[in-house]
Amino acid sequence: MRILHTSDWHLGRAFHRVSMLGAQSEFIGHLVAAVREHEVDAVVVAGDVYDRAVPPLAAVELFDDALHRLADLGVPTVMISGNHDSARRLGVGAGLIDRAGIHLRTEPSACGTPVVLADAYGDVAFYGLPYLEPALVKDEFAVERAGHETVLAAAMDRVRADLAARTAGTRSVVLAHAFVTGGEPSDSERDITVGGVAAVPAGVFDGVDYVALGHLHGCQTLTDRVRYSGSPLAYSFSEAGHRKSMWLVDLAADGTVTAERLDCPVPRPLARLRGTLDDLLADPALTPHEDAWVEATLTDPVRPADPMARLTDRFPHTLSLVFDPDRAPDDPDVSYARRLAGRTDRQIAEDFVAHVRGAGPDEHELAVLSEAFDAVRADGTVREVAR
Question: Whole-structure pTM over 0.85, yes or no?
Answer without folding.
Answer: yes
